Amino acid sequence: MKRRTILGGLAFGPAMLSSLPALGAPAGAAPGGAARAYMVGLLTSIAEPVFSAMARGQLKQRFDLELSPTWDGRPPDVAYLECFGRLLSGCAPWFALPDDDSAEGKTRARLRMLALQSLANAVDPASPDLLLWSGPPQVLVDSAYISSALLRAPAALWEPLDATTRRRLVDAIKGVRAIEPAHTNWLLFAAMNEAFLLSVGEAYDPLRMNTGVRKMREWYVGDGWIKDGDTFHFDYYNSYVIYPMLVTVLQTMVKFKAGYWNAKPEELLAQATKRMQRYGEHLERFISPSGSYPPIGRSITYRTAAFQPLAFMAWHKLLPASLPEGQVRAALEAVHRAIWSDPSNFTAKGFLTIGFAGHHPALADWYSDSGSMYIAAESFLTLGLAPGDSYWTAPARDWTQKKAFSHQDFPKDYHVDY
């Protein structure tokens, strides 16, 4: 597919937020047109400052670095890898759409070209924005988000790269193997990197890949929930990391016919998908009539990344019958409006701040910095569905709590045994 380079265009920042609710669909547009316009505008406002700066080798110079008040002393340079990797992973499905001459299409193509140049700078020893690829364990975490992006959009983000950049990326990902993953969700970061290497025909380590899958199965506690290590945590790590990366690794294993001792990857994928669907039912029921949701557990400053599984399933056409597309779309739009309406989510230059529904640095965990916040881009995966897709054209429906608190009938909820 031929892609055009489109540079220049509009700049976005916190001042744009006041206009986002007015970004309605054009006359005669599909029912979800206004929702899509809102989501495109919001993701653009998040992505523009990062890709624009990094494509010019100026991210480290321009980025508004904010550290947790309880920062653990790790090198602050990890923030730039976090920022870029997490953002790229969330944007990847959108970037994978074909070019078109619409306003959205031109914005998408421009940002994609900036992201490609940023990828080259990320591994170029001569670039001021060469990212940190060794040292602190956090590097393992966020290298996996770059692997995620390349797995999600190979034709848009991997194939256009020159041979030197490809080789540098592969070498960087392989070099991260020197970091031992924690016995937690971190096993999936190691697995994601190996899945990427498998996908591009490089030698991969089956042990690092399959161990992540094996432990997530062992840590399954029931009713759609997976422990993060040996202890159950009531938080959103099933959303931030576990289900999206587990299913992605298994999808890659199935696609490239990787082996798994004493089990079939196809059957493991079906099981993980079914469990993710159940977890998604819980997530949807967490959303209040106004779009608010429980600020529970670690890393609540990751904001809307808490709903990544719903967006992931919608993008992959994996939503269960209990979660109609129009219902999920309406619920996710409400969540994003509830979180992102406060301009203090952004700095004056348009970079993300630490916070929840606004700037709340006291909520930061000891490992959090403003680069960490870009994992919120993972809630925009539905933009990988074309504007004419049924997800965007289906009539909007009230979600569960909205039905429950407006005296409508809504389905009961029961524990499952799979």
Return the average pLDDT rounded to an integer. Answer: 93
Order of helices and strands: HHHHHHHHHEEHHHHEEHH
CATH class: Mainly Alpha
Please give the share of residues in helix.
40-55%
The 3D shape can be described as globular
Explain what you see.
The chain has 15 helices and 4 strands. The chain has 418 residues and is mostly helical. It has one domain (32-404): Glycosyltransferase (Alpha/alpha barrel), CATH 1.50.10. A two-stranded antiparallel ribbon has the order 1-2. A two-stranded antiparallel ribbon has the order 3-4. The longest helix is centred in the N-terminal third of the chain and has 23 residues, at 33-55. The protein is globular and about 60 Å long. The relative contact order is 0.15.
Task: Provide tags for this entry.
single chain; 418 residues; mainly alpha; Glycosyltransferase; two-stranded antiparallel ribbon; 15 helices; 4 strands; globular
